[in-house]
Hints:
The protein is of the alpha+beta class. The chain is about 20% helix and about 40% strand.
Amino acid sequence: MRFQVFHRTRYLYRAPVRDSYNEVRLHPASDDRSRLEFFLLNVQPPVRLRHFRDPYFNYVHYFDIPEPHSELIIEAQCIVNTTTPYSGGAPHGTDFTQLKSLSDDTLAGFLSSSRYVEITPELWRQAVDIRNDGDDLFEACCAIMGCIYREFTYAPQATTASTHIREVLETKRGVCQDFAHVMTGLCRALGIPARYVSGYLYNEGSDVLRGTQASHAWCEVYIPEHGWYGLDPTNNTFADERHIKLATGRDYHDAAPVTGHFDGPPGATSMLEVELRIDHLPV
């Protein structure tokens, strides 16, 4: 599928701030499942944009604004072609014993605890119960996805960007970011490499899918001899051509679309406004 995306983030400060430093992960991934045709990033006040690749190969823009300013606007536009990794079917047939053969050091960070995802004995017990003695890796991942979809309540405003997996497991309430963290943690507890994904979700003009009004999040699991496959626990669906990937990491901290800090007088808090438009284009 071919999409045109416009994403506008506006911070309005209650008092002028200065020395603002920001990192932006809004450049869509470009790989064998996603081809980027066009990308433009615009920032107001005008800044000098720099970029680098982070440890997870995300394309990161960064900038600083030393002068006083009362608002910050970040606009990203892109045209991207997406395909689904499931065109040849789901990667069934890999059993848990094949996890022992994994030797890629780059997978180590996706098997352990991270800032927002803590692997505990309690989490492991939950994961084992969901697996229910099944041997198929991908079927176990799908069972985890389905369990989260059934047992957790989608509740905007119930959590924040810094909510830890512990709170989500206790309340069973949250949004796509929280459900991606829970799924990532449950998969890691079983020894399955899992990573957090930030991006967008195209809703085809309906209200069926959740998490389409702004940035979306889901989970990718690594199946030996097959690679990474996305699963969306917020909607209990495969991450397919409707999902536009921006960044990946161990959790939200590594893949957040916009992060930053600033200096300002007491009370110089910010108000956030987000506008997102995704249009389906002819191929």
